[in-house]
């Protein structure tokens, strides 16, 4: 009978969670939580002062993109007025908003102007976006995160 008691006690002692180091339990908990997070979406999109934080996620995104598009169109209109830009058509701008809310253009796709016009456009758009009002970064579970966007721009300057 004693042997059964000792074997049972050893099995109970061996399988108890209180013997597991707390760091190991925390690491396992964090790993489980990270598996459950949808990393493809954010809780709040980057927001300008003119956009309401209480809007739905889709409306937040639309507001953010509308402000960016408006600024890009302004820059293109200035290029048309100053440099007689002769581009018409559709192109897209890929950019990244980092966790500190800085916007950086990654690339411009589908621009049919000359290489000099494209470089000039990229520089001026970057400068124009930098002059936009305060932007708060995207948020995922209360933490500022970086996000990438691709915005199509349609221009008819003819």
What does this structure look like?
- This protein is of the alpha+beta class and 158 residues long.
- It folds into two domains: 2-36, no CATH class; 47-156, Fusion Protein Consisting Of Minor Coat Protein, Glycine Rich Linker, Tola, And A His Tag, Chain: A, Domain 2, CATH 3.30.1150.
- 46% of the residues lie in helices and 23% in strands.
- The chain has helices at residues 2-15, 22-36, 57-83, 115-130; strands spanning 47-48, 88-97, 103-109, 135-136, 138-140, 143-145, 147-156.
- A three-stranded antiparallel β-sheet has the order 3-2-7, with helices on one face. The chain has a two-stranded antiparallel ribbon with strand order 1-4.
- The longest helix has 27 residues, at 57-83.
- It is elongated.
- The relative contact order is 0.17.
- The model has no long low-confidence stretch (mean pLDDT 80).
In short:
The protein is of the alpha+beta class and 158 residues long.
């Amino acid at each position: 009978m004693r042997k059964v008691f000792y074997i049972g006690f050893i099995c109970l002692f061996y399988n108890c969670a209180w013997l597991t180091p707390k760091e190991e339990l925390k690491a396992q908990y964090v790993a489980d939580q990270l598996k459950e997070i949808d990393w493809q979406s954010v809780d709040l999109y980057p927001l300008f002062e003119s956009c309401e934080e209480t809007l739905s996620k889709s409306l937040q995104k639309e507001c953010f993109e509308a402000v960016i598009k408006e600024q890009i169109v302004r820059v293109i209109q200035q290029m048309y007025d100053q440099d007689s830009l002769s581009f018409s058509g559709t192109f897209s701008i890929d950019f990244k908003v980092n966790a500190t809310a800085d916007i950086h253009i990654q690339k411009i796709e589908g621009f049919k102007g000359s290489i000099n016009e494209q470089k000039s456009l990229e520089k001026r758009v970057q400068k124009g976006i930098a002059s936009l009002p305060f932007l708060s970064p995207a948020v995922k579970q209360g933490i500022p995160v970086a996000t990438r966007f691709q915005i199509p721009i349609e221009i008819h300057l003819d």
